[in-house]
Amino acid sequence: xxxxxxxxxxxxxxxxxxxxxxxxxxxxxxxxxxxxxxxxxxxxxxxxxxxxxxxxxxxxxxxxxxxxxxxxxxxxxxxxxxxxxxxxxxxxxxxxxxxxxxxxxxxxxxx
Length: 111
Description:
Blueprint: H1 2-11, H2 17-28, H3 33-42, H4 47-51, E1 76-83, E2 91-98, E3 103-110
Antiparallel strand pairs: 1-2, 2-3
């Protein structure tokens, strides 16, 4: 079976193991598809294994983030918030927070 598989693959190099399995099944009557696949790989007949380029792996380096020392105004956070009162007008707030002391430094409100 392996010899016949090799000769059929040499005649039809673009055909995969599934099509070659059909041809072998016509000739040899009882052929297992999984066995054909296993021998197809062992013979090195799979084109994707030859032609597919290897993917380049990117080496990720982890960077240690420096922790804040705990001084006020060292790490700030900002956020936008929006609300609609009962009269239907929208207003937005821009908030600046000190994350160390958890103090709100500024709130700017505008419609």
